[in-house]
Design brief:
alpha+beta, 22% helix, five-stranded mixed β-sheet
Length: 184
Amino acid sequence: MSVPPVPSDLPPSELTRMVKARPLPAAPIVIEPTTAERAALAARFGLGAVQALRAEVALEQKPSAIRATGRLQAQIMQPCAVSGEDFPVAIDEPVDLRFVDESAHALPDDDAIEIELEADDCDEIAFSGDMFDLGEAVAQTLGLAIDPYAEGPGADAARIAAGIVREGEQDGPLAAMLAALKKD
């Protein structure tokens, strides 16, 4: 299946997989980026590497949206939030998104309009035309699954080397307050 070009008004995605909105494919779509796409995703998300990524997504036509459900699995090299050294992280996340045609979500031009969002509304992705980018949705799902504060195996040693804590001492502001209370 050939991938049509991305519309010119959007910035190019590192992982473009355009899907026709009608008719939807009956079988789940499997997205596995190329080596170049994985490298571009790693650069986008500030990772050492995206070693593997696979998403399998089933599409279902709903009355006002296209529901995309499935699973994303990835192996990444992520920098430790403390030491900055890369360490391996496995990601296994559910995918549950709704693609909504922009014309179905047109709002009146009223600055005073108040909108109430339901929990499901937060995972909506608007599209226009007869195609939507499932690849970019997978890339965004990966980005949201990355823990920006993840600590690698060298985090404690980096804290000790930086003099933030002494070996054997508990770390963190609460531990420091408790230690101060014990001294009194």
